[in-house]
Write a structure and sequence with these properties.
The protein is built from 8 helices and 12 strands. By secondary structure, it is an alpha/beta fold. It starts with a strand and ends with a strand.
């Protein structure tokens, strides 16, 4: 049995199929871990969603910011973003089944050797705190309150964790950390606005979340996507898998057991 972890697919279905063919992925024996953003700006978001859902227990998925936005669009709370190609999902006959399945997915998945999330893990959290935070959002998304959560999640504050946070402020911080975070200050404040590559940052106070000097250690390797500008950063404790396929880059697949990367150029 092999574990394969793929970065942001974003509807780049054909590239995904080529990668899985290259590694001879077999859902009877292998597991595909998907680091969020299954859908959005690629040409085949509907096909991607159907395929990953169809893998059943052979797929381990976390939600990304684009996946959450699709849920908001499905509720007519917000319009689709200009470059998104998710309209076929909204108009599909199996729309309800697909979107219900999507909102059942967590923000954190765990293997005995690694954890996977979309954007990252708050530098203030240890693994147990991250697990509990994930369960809070997962339970809400699977409850009757999910529409309320989706409607009220769009805001950049609070930017600092405090376990005494309650209600929507607590939930916003959790969602933003897991799905939107890139930079933090060394005093742990999350910056939700900066999207520049690290080599273009002129503010000495801003660092990638995984380089915060006093970051609480996580006992496992963190696998994440979301940040194409990192171009597949790989460190001792974190591995970034978003290599910008939807922007003309590559789709990256990691074979965990062999610690080998497979890449497919955008078609």
């Amino acid at each position: 049995m092999s574990n394969y972890i793929v970065g942001d697919i974003q509807g780049c279905f054909d590239e995904l199929m080529r990668l899985l063919k290259t590694v001879e992925f077999d859902p009877k024996f292998d597991t595909l871990w998907v680091a969020g953003d299954l859908v959005a700006r690629g040409p085949k978001s509907l096909e991607t969603l159907r395929f990953i859902k169809g893998l059943g227990a052979s797929a381990k998925v976390v939600l990304g910011n684009h996946d959450l936005h699709l849920l908001a669009v499905s509720l007519d709370l917000f319009p689709a973003k200009g470059k998104d190609k998710t309209k076929p999902i909204i108009e599909a006959e199996d729309r309800y089944e697909l979107l219900t399945w999507l909102r059942q997915q967590p923000l954190l998945q765990e293997h005995e050797n690694f954890v996977m999330c979309h954007a990252g893990i708050s530098p203030q959290w240890d693994l147990e705190t991250a697990r509990k935070a994930n369960l809070e959002i997962q339970d809400l998304l699977r409850s009757d309150k999910w529409t309320w959560l989706i409607e009220n999640m769009y805001e950049n504050q609070p930017d600092l964790w405090n376990n005494q946070l309650t209600g929507i402020e607590r939930y916003r911080y959790i969602i933003n950390s897991f799905t939107r975070m890139r930079y933090c200050s060394n005093s742990y404040h999350i910056d939700m606005t900066c999207k520049l590559p690290p080599n273009e940052i002129k503010d000495d106070e801003l660092v990638p979340w995984f380089k915060v000097s006093a970051r609480t250690p996580i006992e496992k390797t963190i696998l994440f996507g979301h940040w194409a500008a990192l171009k597949g950063y790989s460190g001792e404790e974190v591995i970034g898998l978003d290599t910008g396929c939807v922007w003309g880059g590559e789709l990256t697949l990691l074979h965990w057991e062999e610690h080998k990367f497979y890449r497919q150029k955008a078609l």
